[in-house]
Design brief:
Two copies of one chain form a homodimer. Chain A is mainly beta. Chain A folds into two domains: 109 residues, Porin, CATH 2.40.160.210; 135 residues, Acyl-CoA thioesterase, double hotdog domain (Porin, Beta Barrel), CATH 2.40.160. In chain A, 10% of the residues lie in helices and 39% in strands. Chain A is built from three helices and 16 strands. A 13-stranded antiparallel beta sheet of chain A has the order 1-2-6-7-8-5-13-16-15-14-12-11-10, with helices on one face. In chain A, strand 14 and strand 15 form a beta hairpin. In chain A, helix 2 runs antiparallel to helix 3. The longest helix of chain A has 16 residues. Chain A is globular, with a radius of gyration of 18 Å. Chains A and B meet through strand 5, strand 8, strand 9, strand 13 and strand 14 of A and strand 5, strand 8, strand 9, strand 13 and strand 14 of B. Strand 9 of chain A pairs antiparallel with strand 14 of chain B.
Chain lengths: 273, 273
């Protein structure tokens, strides 16, 4: 199923309520990807906003708190408008399972990004990544678990940060590479919400395996991406107290920083012997 | 008024509802500081949690969306528990003016930070800051506006990043220095929510003056701070499309990274002539 189909929402008859189908392919180890769910929440926010026309067509920021893993299949989205301003509108979206169990809650800020904007100050150094032909596409068979989303996302990683796949992580805590939809769909503001949480956890590069459940994710969309594969850098900042904070920066084919994600996630750290 | 007093909340009789007083001293240019308001929301979350005992005594993450400037004086806090887990609890807090106008909404995650935790991986380089005696305390008289919060927070900045105060910003987009409560109150997890948004905007160091209204702020509390002044680095990552994303890192007197804030804020950029 395509990204636009798996993030589609349908009005549920009650004001501010939508239904959706959480697709099992957009998942890791049996759990829906957090960026996919954030994009789904943004679609619901945009659906709610659309009644006012096209003033705020782009997601510019989205911030989510994940409560527990979302079930596949039917889901409910409850949208409340918190602010309708001249420049931006803010909506809260709660995603629940079909039985009403809340799974995540997001704040979505929509506005308008201009095609002709240019950076005034950019202090985020772009990574040096080899040509995509020299990078390695991540398979659906992950390290000890299945990663079905790798069938619909084409992720090509710099071999220099793939040591974890052969038991020799670099220890730098950084993954770099390319990201594109496998079906050729071009990136847009909505897709960037997925992009900031679509790479494997940077903790793999520290030799810390296993699932890294996202607690909080904040995504800033800084510019409209040009067509072509995105360049992504996922970096672990601090691993402590069974948590890691990771910063994920995303550049488009023009080399422009188009999105950043910051997340706090759980991680298993072996105890010293 | 002391920090603990200006973040105090009182049960309002209705389940999950509290009242508070937004103090005019904890403000910049007539608007309450965003970190102060986030700490106030966290106090409300903790009050709501306290019925269950002391299992989750520390804020470990808080993420807020600011809708419009909060008024000074009486405020209302509505708290809803979204998750009560074994390791963490998550609460949503909405702060409204006395008349019910919503001003910000936060997700607060509470858990327990252990005194004996140690970093497993730390990729966040601490700044080189001169001794506090060689730094300059920021005054209440700010650049074109009053900053009353500088009367209750002692902020000593590295002179090397104070060029903006004399019309010669460095252009690096980074402010470094020390932060303490003026009355000697020691930092704790709650105070770190304030610390990640208490420095002047790093855009001052880019020659961009004026108010930088926070749209989103996410704060991670990574460790319990030791007594003594905090070291703070506020850095602008990208300025584009009338917005800046800033990362604020906070170290304690042991040199441990204890908190990080990520915010997306509005900023005025002069148009090219």
């Amino acid at each position: 199923m395509r990204f636009d189909d798996v993030t589609a929402v349908t009005p549920a008859g009650t004001s501010g309520r939508y239904t959706a189908q959480v697709d099992p392919q957009w998942s890791i180890a049996g759990k829906p990807n957090g960026g996919y769910l954030l994009a789904l929440c943004a679609r619901a926010a945009q659906a709610e906003l659309s009644a006012e026309g096209e003033h705020h067509p782009h997601v510019v920021a989205a911030s989510a708190t994940y409560l527990s893993p979302t079930a596949f299949g039917p889901a409910r989205l409850d949208v409340e408008e918190l602010r309708r301003g001249r420049g931006t509108s803010v909506l809260r979206v709660r995603l629940s399972d079909d039985d009403g169990t809340p799974r995540l809650e997001a704040h979505v800020t929509c506005g308008r990004l201009r095609d002709d904007a240019e950076p005034h100050h950019d202090n985020v150094t772009a990574p040096d990544v080899p040509p995509i032909e020299q990078c390695v596409r991540l398979p659906v068979d992950g390290p000890g678990f299945q990663v079905p989303i790798m069938g619909v996302l084409a992720e090509h990683l710099d071999p220099a940060c793939l040591g974890w796949a052969t038991g020799a992580p670099s220890g730098a805590g950084e993954l770099r590479g390319y990201l594109a939809f496998d079906d050729g769909r071009e990136p847009d503001a909505l897709a960037l919400l997925l992009a900031v949480d679509a790479f494997p956890p940077a903790t793999f590069d520290l030799g810390l395996g296993g699932w890294v459940p996202t607690l909080h994710l904040s995504a800033w969309v800084r510019a409209l991406p040009a067509p072509g594969p995105l360049v992504v850098r996922q970096a672990a900042r601090l691993v402590e107290a069974s948590m890691v904070d990771e910063t994920c920066d995303v550049w488009d084919s023009r080399g422009r920083l188009v999105a950043t994600g910051h997340q706090l996630a759980g991680v298993r750290v072996p105890r010293p012997a």
